[in-house]
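Q: What would this chain look like folded?
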Amino acid sequence: MSENKRLGDPGRTAGLMAETLKQGRLILRLLGDRRVSVWPKLIIPATIAYVLSPIDLLSDPIIGLGQIDDVAVFLIGLKLFVELCPTDIVREHLDSLTSVIDGSYRVVKEEQKQLPDTPELSEPESDRGKDQLPGDAGGQQV
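A: My prediction, written as structure tokens:
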């Protein structure tokens, strides 16, 4: 089996992670939006309370089985919250999350600045003052 097939498609994994982050940001925006009623917003704390409570829908006879129902309830609670929010508000937030700013860019290469204190970068003592005009002391007394 090749390495790429075993690990999965990186583009698909990145897309899944990006979609998960977008949904998380959508939920946070909807929780902060005053136009969304309090009742749908109560689903999130109720879901968190269930996940943290010792009461489970499925008991834990097999390790991992009890955590699966917690994850399922958590994901269903998040999905239910988004579904119960007004559609136009959800669409507005989704559009702002997926909007792309058009523009152009260019790479600016920064020049390395020479430090005058370092001996290898500063001019030798004998060359100092050569480029000065007559009468220009360059801050030195003549």
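The chain has a mean pLDDT of 76.
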